[in-house]
Each structure stands twice: as structure tokens, then as C-alpha cells.
């Protein structure tokens, strides 16, 4: 879990900083998420069970992950091309509209409101809402997988249900973990120098 979270955080930090869907939290990379309900808290900031159900029922695939990573690559390239003043202005806009209880639709609207973000995501073949769904589903899946690995003697199916995680996504993640990790590391390397990373 810590490995996936650590690898996704730089990519997500760029988006969350620029969109300000939530404040940057360093504790996300250092938390060992001992509670089984921790993956459900990956959806913290969303409104209600319907939002959690959307994330829980979303089915990950390598094609979707590749599109998410292409969007990250596009975002990194566009952010690198910005002047520090432009980046600061975008970050300030995001911080002024920060809402930790934003719904998935709210997050998608914030992305739509920033042409640079919207264009980078559309160029990757995603809508802003699907981009948010993929991102949140990956976070939930990675956290759930980490909890399952920390508690191998517990009933894994019960833990998955308790965490409200998608068992198919956990299976997918485990089957593709090395590929996802390698691709995420490549994006992380490309993002060096963007927003202080």
C-alpha cells in the first residue's frame, strides 16, 4: 500500500494542487492505514454512499490506467511549460475554491473550469469525471490491497467487504502491480521540477 500510495502521490499532487480538490496531505504517504475501513476513507471528501458506490463499482483496466497516466504526462508537460507565476496563480485559484467535501462531480467541474487541466485530460481520451473515478478507484484499490497484505491471516473477503473495495480491482491491481508501478515511476521521473517535485 505504501508503495502504491508513494508512487501515485506525485502524480496526484499535481492534479490536487492545481485543481485543489483537497489540500495536499503528506500523511497519506506515511500512514500505514491500520484500520480496515481506511480504504473507504480514500473517498473522504465525497458526498454519501452513492459516491462511494460509484468508486466501488468502477472497473479498472490497463487501458484506463494508461489513459490516466497519459493525462498525468500531459499535465506534467503543460505544467512544466508554465511560468512560476502562472503555476502560482493556478494554485491560488485552486486553493481559494478548495472544498474537502467536494463530490466526484464537484471535482470534475473544477477540472473542467481549468482549461489546461481539462485539455490535458481530454487529450488522453478521458472525461474529467472518469479521470476522477480512475484516480479515486486506484487510491482505494491500493489502500485496500495494502490492508489485505498487512492482515494476511484475516478473512480477506470480509475485509474487502468491510473496506467497500472492489474485489475485481484488487485482483486486477495484483496482476498488474509491476507494470503499473513501472509506468507510474516513469511519470514521476518526468514530473521532476514541477511544483517543487
Please give the number of β-strands: 0
Specify Rg, calculated over alpha carbons. Answer: 16 Å
Percentage of β-strand residues: under 5%
Instruction: Give the integer mean of the pLDDT values.
Output: 78
Helical proportion? over 70%
The biggest sheet amounts to: none
Rough shape?
globular
Low-confidence stretches: 1-36
Q: What is the SS-derived class?
A: mainly alpha
Number of helices: 11
Q: How far apart are the termini?
A: 21 Å
Order of helices and strands: HHHHHHHHHHH
Brief synopsis:
It contains eleven helices and no strands.
Structural notes for this entry:
By secondary structure, this protein is mostly helical. About 70% of the residues lie in helices and about 0% in strands. The protein is built from 11 helices and no strands. The longest helix is centred in the C-terminal third of the chain and has 24 residues, at about 165-190. The chain is globular, with a radius of gyration of 16 Å. The protein starts with a helix and ends in a 7-residue tail after the last helix. Residues about 1-35 have low confidence and may be disordered.
Amino acid at each position: 500500500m505504501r508503495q502504491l500510495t508513494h508512487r501515485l502521490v506525485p502524480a496526484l499532487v499535481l492534479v490536487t494542487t492545481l485543481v485543489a480538490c483537497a489540500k495536499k496531505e503528506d500523511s497519506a504517504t506515511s500512514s500505514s492505514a491500520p484500520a480496515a475501513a481506511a480504504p473507504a476513507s480514500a473517498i473522504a471528501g465525497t458526498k454519501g454512499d452513492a459516491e462511494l458506490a460509484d468508486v466501488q463499482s468502477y472497473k479498472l483496466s490497463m487501458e484506463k490506467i494508461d489513459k490516466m497516466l497519459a493525462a498525468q504526462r500531459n499535465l506534467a508537460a503543460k505544467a512544466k511549460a508554465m511560468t512560476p507565476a502562472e503555476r502560482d496563480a493556478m494554485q491560488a485559484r485552486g486553493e481559494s475554491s478548495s472544498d474537502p467535501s467536494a463530490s466526484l462531480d464537484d471535482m470534475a467541474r473544477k477540472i473542467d473550469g481549468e482549461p489546461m487541466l481539462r485539455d490535458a485530460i481530454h487529450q488522453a481520451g478521458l472525461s474529467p469525471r472518469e479521470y476522477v473515478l480512475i484516480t479515486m478507484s486506484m487510491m482505494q484499490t491500493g489502500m485496500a490491497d495494502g490492508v489485505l497484505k498487512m492482515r494476511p491471516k484475516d478473512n480477506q473477503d470480509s475485509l474487502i467487504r468491510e473496506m467497500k473495495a472492489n474485489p475485481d480491482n484488487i485482483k486486477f491491481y495484483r496482476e498488474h502491480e509491476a507494470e503499473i508501478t513501472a509506468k507510474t515511476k516513469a511519470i514521476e521521473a518526468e514530473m521532476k521540477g514541477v511544483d517543487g517535485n
